[in-house]
UniProtKB/TrEMBL annotation:
Residues 49-161 form the DUF402 domain. SUPFAM superfamilies: FomD-like (SSF159234). Keywords: Hydrolase. PANTHER family: PTHR39159, UPF0374 PROTEIN YGAC. It comes from Streptomyces chattanoogensis. It holds the Pfam family DUF402. Gene3D superfamilies: FomD-like. InterPro entries: DUF402 (IPR007295), FomD-like_sf (IPR035930), Ntdp-like (IPR050212). Transmembrane segments: none annotated. GO terms for molecular function: hydrolase activity. This is RNA-binding protein AU-1.
Amino acid sequence: MSRAALTAGQEVTVRLVKSGDTKLRYPAVVAGDDGTHAVVRAPWGRTTVRDFGFVRFEPGDVFTEHYWRDRWYAVKEVRAADGTLKGWYCDAARPAEIRPDSIVIVDLELDLWLSADGATILRLDEEEFAESGLEGDDPAAASMARRAMDELEALARAGGFADLLG
């Protein structure tokens, strides 16, 4: 894993891997990188709406995505096209593999949503996590994924991610 920092304004490809397969690949622009914490911005990469019930991701939405080389999660701030904050979507993931032209994220199935007003905190995809087999195949990674969700939920309940995201 390279510790070389990405350059603000640089274009990179973000690749989301689940169960060994690339599930998503999209372009993003680097907002900053201090060598540990990389931040990129990317538009919602689909031409259709994805309605989760608690939030809708729509064409025009902008994601400011925070990745760490030393933490087991990623945090994505989601804003509507007009700049209105929708909330934060968080993924349990192995520490980011940041390359000179890309960021590779290995998703570990568990997710958390924090609404913009802080009133809604949802832990998501527990069933997918259980079905993934990670607890049997890699119990240490499964434990880190659960710890990551516990940490993110505690931060969300304590007032949000402002200190974490800087």
